[in-house]
Design brief:
Layout: E1 7-10, E2 13-17, E3 28-31, H1 34-42, H2 49-65, H3 72-87, H4 94-112, H5 117-147, E4 153-157, H6 164-167, H7 173-182, E5 186-192, H8 199-210, E6 215-218, H9 223-228, E7 234-237, E8 241-243, E9 248-251, H10 254-263, E10 268-271, E11 277-278, H11 295-298, E12 299-300, E13 303-304, E14 316-319, E15 326-329, E16 332-334, H12 338-352
Parallel strand pairs: 4-5, 4-7, 5-6, 7-10, 8-11, 10-15
Antiparallel strand pairs: 1-2, 2-3, 8-9, 9-14, 12-13, 15-16
Helix pairs in contact: 1-2, 1-3, 2-3, 2-4, 2-5, 3-4, 4-5, 5-7
The chain binds 5-S-methyl-1-O-phosphono-5-thio-D-ribulose.
Amino acid sequence: MNVAQPIEWTGKGVVMLDQRRLPGEVIHHTYTDYREVAAAIKDMVIRGAPAIGVAAAMGVALGVERSSARTLDELRAEFPGICRTIAQTRPTAVDLFWAIERMTRRFEQLSAANTPFDALRRALVEEARAIHAEKRATDEAIGRFGAKLMPATGQVMTQCNAGALATAGIGTALGVIRVAIEEGHKLSVFVPETRPYLQGARLTAWELHEGGVPLTLITDNMVGHFMKQGKVDAVVVGADRIAANGDTANKIGTYQIAVLAREHSVPFYVAGPVSTFDLTISSGEQIPIEERSAEEVTHIRGVRIAPDVPAAHPAFDVTPARLISAIICERGVARAPYTESLRRLASIVMAIS
Ligand code: MRU
């Protein structure tokens, strides 16, 4: 499957495709300092929950690999600061914190075993690369489980970009659609533009078009119209954080699509890896919602489109579990009651690792 690669670990450093410049320009940056990786996450060079997780892991590995520490004790003193810098980038996608925690566990294991300095650096790079490879496998599995839920023929709506650009694999929501098409489903995709940051128009439309997947780009306020006309057969979206009860944070605008899907009896699916589950919180009310700059609302690509007035920009919203038909992860498909099904699927992962 031919998909865009948003991030790679190379001998020169961490290479990222600059998603801010798509679809007009395909530009890559090479980062050699973990602070640059943190800035790239914050500034949306890379975005999408699983891809942010991979970037965070590579950022930690880079911090350790390029550290000027000369002893393990010096590195131990420096390590929490590296993790803090990366953690303070974007608050909603739990994959970021999951990846930092996993890198921290590995670091602690290695340093408790008094692993020689160079071996420890190499092992952390390997851990970050393993996380990257696992994301690819995870997406494929999500795709296979999700494809079974897709209609044999019809139009599927998504929101934002939950494709290869967002995961470093084949995508979660878009992975489901891609695998379904590979398996013979005749699907086309409704792509809401996803104001204000336009991930739908700029990234999903680009990614699907490049991959030869039929699509129709619409503005966000056309969703109800097309659902009412019976033109949407299913919705599948990604997730930034899924609470223990199934409430799901995803890109702003997801909630209104879920409400409309319920009104029009359209199944509404969430696709996300187990690393997106946050079973430490009981409901979506506890999910921190990132507030981004109001300028992203009043301006499009630097051009002012509104008078100089106050504007709001919550970057995510929370869809209540009762509006979600199923949650697709790499271990299977969770259905209500989610408090039980999510815990069961998460514990399968814990038993294996
Ligand atoms: O602000 P973004 O572009 O990082 O938001 C991305 C989304 O909301 C995605 O739908 C989500 O991260 C899932 S990506 C598989």
